[in-house]
Each structure stands twice: as structure tokens, then as C-alpha cells.
Amino acid sequence: MAAVKDTVDQVLAIVGNPQYKSAPSAERDRLRAVVAPRFDFAEMSRSAMGYDWRNLSPAQRQQFVTVFTRLLEASYMGKIEGYNGQKIEYVKQTRNGDYAEVYTNIIPSGGDAISIDYRLKNENGTWRVYDVLIDNISLVGNYRAQFHRIMTDKGYNELITLIKNKEQSLDAGS
Amino acid sequence: MYASRTTQFIVGLFALAGLAALAYLCFRLGQISIFAPSGYVLYANFDNIAGLKVGDNVEIAGVQVGKVDAISLKDDRARVKMSIHSGVQVDEDAIAAIRTLGIIGDKYVSISLGPSEKMLANGATIRQTESAFVLEDAIGQLINNMGTTGSKKQSEEKGTDGLQSPPAIGDPGASKPVPSVR
């Protein structure tokens, strides 16, 4: 889909741009600016919280979206920045009214292709990503299962703490 | 001497009652319902159902909430028809995934409920699905990736805090979830 390809191309252009080699924080800002309009992080957060979202107060929802978005950034920015010229192929797309799915493969050198599928929703004419499936595993679905366990066992506040801790440990490791 | 008409009649009744009880028992044990169970139909389309068959369970949070009624092909995807117990509500943002009992056991459909307050009606389709875990693919990937030194920047370790990062790009061998063990 043009929307996805467009954003991916922009991301690759930033990552491949030699002027950012010595300016990682500027690169990250640019990446954020390009990714934010295409990815609906609020919707991803809501979906990752799943059933328990209904029981959160507006303040909690806001907090969770912020914290979860930071977790996603910490988890995946490093991988995007580590892009090394691997080939990306666009396999197909399906569309069902206001929902669509774009199937792509990323082919690392010397390894099997990894499938990356984007699920998009059309809101007022703009297509935005609300889930990414890596090797057929839904990112949102995976977090949903983990978060639900923690919500029932330890509660909301503990979940926020755990997410923040994980984010920090990811940042420290990069 | 023949028994009186009344006696014959009563014996006949007992025989019928016995047969009816036997039939009921057969149906119960065989889990076939004579009377249509109150419930509703939901559909889900998967890219790969890898061994899911009619009669397999549909579960939410490990509790059986329905069964797979029919499987057909829609374009290049598998269309699964499920009958769900009435009273069980599935929302629009639910995710249906194919899971396996153990590692090589029966398949079942696991539905994870979402945040939406809009419930799916009879005959609706669950929009988000996750296809089956194919063991052979995962082994193939593992074998292929063992020889490569990936260009990953961060190593994803399983945190002791219980929050595991989902499989990420560039992590050889860590790209499939551990199938749920029951």
C-alpha cells in the first residue's frame, strides 16, 4: 500500500543518510516525526491494554498511552536504526472497508525472510497502522496477553512500573 | 395366557422410556445436541490454520466458549465458522489466534478480548487474527539462523520483571512464541 511504502521509504532514507551517523538524537527525532503520523500509538496502546481498558480512568488511559509509546520506541528504535540495507519486498495487500493489511518481507543477509505485516485503519482518509505482525505474531496481541496477566495479578500501578523499568533497561542497553 | 391389555401397555411404555433414556445418554456422552444449543455464529479468517479441524474448541482465557462448526476456503484464506455459547460476548477489537495444546497436540481457537464496548453480532467476523504456529517453519528458521551473526544492537533478554519483549527483528531463534502448555 502506498501509505506504508511511503513511510518505510522515508524511514529508510533517514536511516541510510550518512549525515546522521554522528547525530543519533537528531536522527531519532527525524524518525519520530516520520513515524508518528503513520502509526496510531494511541490506538495501539488501547488495543494492547485490551479488555482492561474499559476500567481505566481517563487519566490512567492517558498515562498508559504515554508510557506504552515510550516502551515501543525503546524496543524498536534500535532495530530500525540498525537497518543494514536488507531487502524489503511488498508481497500483497488486502482491504476490507476501512481496514487493510499490507504484507511485507524483510530479507536479512544470510537468513530466512522475516514477514512483517501492517494492519491499518482508515480514519477520515488517512491510513494509520494499529498493529504490526512480525512473523505472524501480533505485537498488540502479545502485549495484550502479558498486560492482562499483570493487571489481574498485580494491578495497574505495578504494570506501569514494570513497563517503565523495561523501557529503562532497554534504553540502557542500546 | 397373554397379559392383559393394560399390562402390555405399561410394559410398552417402560420399553419406550428405556429406549429414550438410552438415546439421551448416547447423545449426552457423544456431545451431540438434539435441541439446537442457544448460541450464535462468529467467523474468522486466517492465513494458515495448520491442522485446526471441525469440532475443535474455541476458548477465552482457557475456558471453552464454543466450537469450530465449519472450515472453508475464502480466496486464499481459511474461513472458520464458530458457534459461540450465548451469553459470551466478543467485542469488535478481539483477536482470534490458533493455538496448540502442548507442542504437537490439538489445535484450538483462542480469542483475546479487546477494549471495544461494541459487541459482535450473530454472523459477524472477528477482524484481527493470528495464524497457526508451524513448528517446521520455526525449526527451519532456527537452523538457518544459527550460522549467522545478526547485526542486532540490543539483545532481548527475558526480563525477570515478567515483561517480555515480543520477538523483534534480527533475533535469530527467538521469533516464535512458546506454544501454550496445558
Oligomeric grouping of the chains? heterodimer
CATH topology of chain A: Nuclear Transport Factor 2, Chain: A
Shape estimate of chain B: elongated
Number of strands of chain A: 5
Query: Helical residue percent of chain B?
Result: 10-25%
Percentage of residues in helical conformation of chain A: 40-55%
Derived from helix and strand composition plus strand pairing, the structural class of chain A reads alpha+beta
- Per CATH, the architecture of chain A is Roll
Largest β-sheet summary of chain B: 8 strands, mixed
List segments of chain B where confidence is low: pLDDT < 50 over at least 5 consecutive residues. Answer: 149-165, 167-182
Count of individual helical segments of chain B? 2
CATH structural class of chain A: Alpha Beta
State the separation between the terminal residues of chain A, measured CA to CA. 32 Å
CATH superfamily of chain A: Tgt2/MlaC
Mean pLDDT of chain B: 78
Give the SSE order of chain B as H and E letters: HEEEEEEEEH
The ordered H/E elements of chain A are HHHHEEEEEHH
Beta-strand portion of chain B reads: 25-35%
Alpha-carbon Rg of chain A, integer:
17 Å
Strand order of the largest sheet of chain B: 7-1-4-3-2-6-5-8
- Identify low-pLDDT runs of chain A: none
Write the layout of secondary structure elements.
The complex is a heterodimer of chains A (174) and B (182).
Chain A: H1 2-16, H2 24-35, H3 41-49, H4 58-81, E1 87-96, E2 99-107, E3 114-123, E4 126-134, E5 137-138, H5 139-153, H6 156-173
Antiparallel strand pairs in A: 1-2, 2-3, 3-4, 4-5
Helix pairs in contact in A: 1-2, 3-4, 3-5, 4-6
Chain B: H1 5-29, E1 39-46, E2 57-60, E3 63-74, E4 77-85, E5 95-100, E6 107-112, E7 124-126, E8 128-130, H2 135-146
Parallel strand pairs in B: 1-7, 2-6, 5-8
Antiparallel strand pairs in B: 1-4, 2-3, 3-4, 5-6
